[in-house]
Amino acid sequence: MFFDWQLISTQKIAAAFDYSFEQILAADGIPYAPVVVDTSVDRYPTIGETVTVETTPQSVGDSSIELLYEMVDGDGERLATAQMIHVTISPAGTALALPEKTRSDFIEACADRSATVGVHTKTPSGEQLPSFSSSFEIRSPHIEGAELAYFEEYPRFADISLEEFLGEQGTSQNELQGEKQPYHLRNWSWEFLSPVYFESTLSVSSDVLEVDQETICIAHEFTSGGQTNIKGITEYGCYDRSGHPVLFDAPMLAPFEE
User: What does pTM read for this prediction?
Assistant: First the structure.
């Protein structure tokens, strides 16, 4: 749902600055595609909570907009933060320059909101940690008339690849879940290098960089047609039933020990 809330917020701010999704789609463009994404989850909301997304322009280029998304609960406490650089892509695949008035309005609205978000620099720990990979056929419902895989699909593909690895190690996520919910997204920093087209095969390669009781850190690379589409680092955490981060139990970390 974090991705749905972020997308809705992007649509709303785009309309407020007179460069709407509808306008861009009518010209066969791809609106506000993310190219650099940093996200951190402080707490997962529970059913029935009210979530508010505060969206603030951070910086503006000729064709790019950096937006900060702060998701808070009904008491104003932070749930998650995302910092994203967006560009709008033309039918020819190039980044479109922002309309001059839109650009100047965004610049005027920019505010420097300090936020610690995404993955801190990670390097391999030196331990012998596992690697794994999966492949996915990218499909689209014909009724949608789209050509590219959706942004929110990529973390799901990474999740499925992780679940497959856990299954191969004899670990069932359902068996581990109780008062604790392991392997949930906690922090991630990804760079989007090229789009993934429908009817292509997307390979997800995962290298485990570090494992401790707080996080499992994995480097991801998404490739199709012989080129890298996305690369980045993802940290998975463990959360309790109220959505707060807790430590992994030893059986949850066992599949990563070689």
Answer: 0.90
